[in-house]
Amino acid sequence: MTREQKTELVEELKQKFETTPYFYIVSALGMNSAETSNLRRLCFERGVEYRVIKNTLIKKALEDQEVDYAPFNDEVLKGFSGVMFHPESGKVPAQLIKDYRKKSGKDKLQFKGASVDASLFIGADQIDRLIALKSKQEMLGEVIAILQSPAKNVLGALQSGGHKLAGILKTLSEKEEQEAA
Fold first, then answer.
1. Dihedral sign, CA of 116, 122, 123, 126?
2. Residue 51's closest CA among 91, 20, 88, 89?
3. Per-residue pLDDT of the chain (181 residues; tens, 9 = 90+)
4. What pTM does this model have?
5. Which of 14, 112, 121, 130 could be 94's S-S partner, Cβ–Cβ 3.0 to 4.6 Å?
6. Are 90 and 114 in contact (CB under 8 A)?
């Protein structure tokens, strides 16, 4: 790869890191071509972009970002690295990694680190924590449901109270009619 090609790739990566709030760095070291092909197919099916990139180029692309990615330099950007990008969810790549490992029965796909909405997650023990994360849409839905809940309770109480009042009035009017007769 020429110097110009590397510069272009770094610029492309900078743009990708700026515009994609969810990316994972993994190691697929030791995977054969069939396993790599299966991983790429699974990524495609789930809308995850997977690229193998040299650590030095990833470091250069992350240097000028607003978020401080220095913690990645010591632990994450060592050895063989691939980057998984997902435009909408920080949960999808984590679930993909877990599913792939369960399906293949091998530990060849290793989670090294992730950036989810500028929060850094480092180490294989973080994968379950990432799977449990809720997306912005899920959290907004929960907040809206919580805000709507009191209003629904008030309306329900008013409606049930109205039904009770109507029942009481009907019973009283029937009682008066019976007494008058």
1. negative
2. 20
3. 788 888 898 899 888 888 888 899 998 888 888 888 888 999 999 999 999 989 899 899 888 888 888 888 878 888 888 999 988 888 889 888 888 888 877 677 888 999 888 788 888 888 888 887 776 676 677 777 777 777 666 666 666 666 666 777 777 778 777 777 6
4. 0.71
5. 130
6. yes
